[in-house]
Specification:
This protein is mainly alpha-helical. The chain contains 6 helices and 2 strands. It starts with 5 loop residues before the first strand and ends with a helix.
Length: 130
Amino acid sequence: MGFRNGIRERKRKATLKQRSINPEIYKLLQKIPVKSNGYIFDTDNFKQAYRLKHLLKQLDIPETTFHGLRDTHASFLFSKGIDIVYVSKRLGHCNIQTTQNYYLELMPEKKHQQDADALNLLSSLSSETI
């Protein structure tokens, strides 16, 4: 990890993405020895999943997957009002439509709130013009 407060992940062979992280996580990651391939985590998905399961069990946290952690992270950002454009870029989606389709389906209350907000806006516009 030769950069400050970030994690680089390989999305595709030709693409390398960088993600910001908080300083506490960065300090913890610095304690993990770098492997001979230059990474701190194995690239074998089975080993990663096994280690995550073991770590969550040690911490008494319900079992999940890396993708589950990603979904939780995105849902948390949305619940705090973080802009969908930022979240979409953070997730590495090529376009915002991918983010909207997937996460609005996961968070129906967000879609319902947006529907209500849109209807309220339209109602206020029609009452202003009358």
